[in-house]
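Sample intake sheet
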Amino acid sequence: MPDSTIVQPKQSVLIVDDDPIQGQLIKDVCSRIGYAAVFAQSYESAAAALTSHRFSHVTIDLALGERDGIELIRLLSGLPEMPRVIVISGCEQRILNAAVRLAHSAGACDAVSLPKPIELKALREALMVQPCDCKSMRCAEPRKTDVITIDDLKEGFANGEIFAMFQPKILLTTGKLVGCEALARWNSPKFGMVAPDRFISLAEEAGLIKPLTLLMLREATELTRDLLPTVPGFSAAVNFSATLLADPTVPEDVETILVDRKVPGSSLMIEVTETTAMSDVAKAMDTLLRLRIKGFGISMDDFGTGYSSMSVLAQMPFCELKIDRTFIKGCLVDQDLWKVVTSAVAIARAYNMKAVAEGIEDLETLWALESIGCHIGQGYAISKALPRSEFLQWTDNWERRVRDSLLRIPERKHA
């Protein structure tokens, strides 16, 4: 006699829509591809379903009556594992795009939108994409409850637990390696691998930001010195904080490090965020000009994320504009993001600066950026950040193993 127990398929979908006909349409598509589906006609019934079931996908109609789909996205953000979010609405595309961005900021590592009336093929394709398991390095780190103190950081710094990792930067037109970004990492016996967003602010409070930055500079210039004979023009980028830009001794400290290692000033790119530059414009301008006079490059990092990007760009002596990853990710499916990216590239070229895109996660995005004249790219599509020894090995293998596969694609698509 067959087992009568109902076994829930691995993929289950919560359909949230105040229109039962629309809900049934989505449910039919789910059935055809072997997914279990639960229909909820209101926010309240959806919330009740989420307390008793774990769903791999949630389709959300933005207009749900008294409580809209945005409230539901906020509710989903509190779940231990956020499902793949499919936003469905008859609202204009810009609203759909904004809802997807909201889902991403709420913790969804994967979200898409579909306009009404729904195209069944597009719905099926959206449902067939599996939700991210959040173990990928591309996704945000899990929330950590460990409290790190200034004393922990001081001890870690004194014990040599903080070091640089290097993410390659390539010329998009040729695939040629042109540089890297030095990124601080802390391998703590107590806390494990600690990301910089958890300890850089502590370094500021502890008075460690200057020695930490100089450590990044020394490690970056040592790598650069080793690569220059085989990679002419190679440059390493290092992030500078507002504290450093207010220190009048910094230009000489930087120059000393490069002179000691016999590395030219053109092989260093100093990355400065807009917020950093605007914290004290007069002091920042003083330091940045002196650094530029000494031959160092200055990059405007995280372009577009602040309130006065254009003002800073016009005032400061930047030679590179770095487009923030929040605009690059999803720019091929979000026309609003694509407009920001294309405008940023055009602005960089108008100012005779190099346009750099960070956070390139797939080859289609890489090709699209190259097609609009973006000069340089970095991101997981090229390589994650690597320790020094692995970076040198990656460099040796790059041309043979990767470059041809990047560039021998005849058709390059972009939004």
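Comment: The chain is about 45% helix and 20% strand. The CA atoms of residues 245 and 286 lie 8 Å apart.
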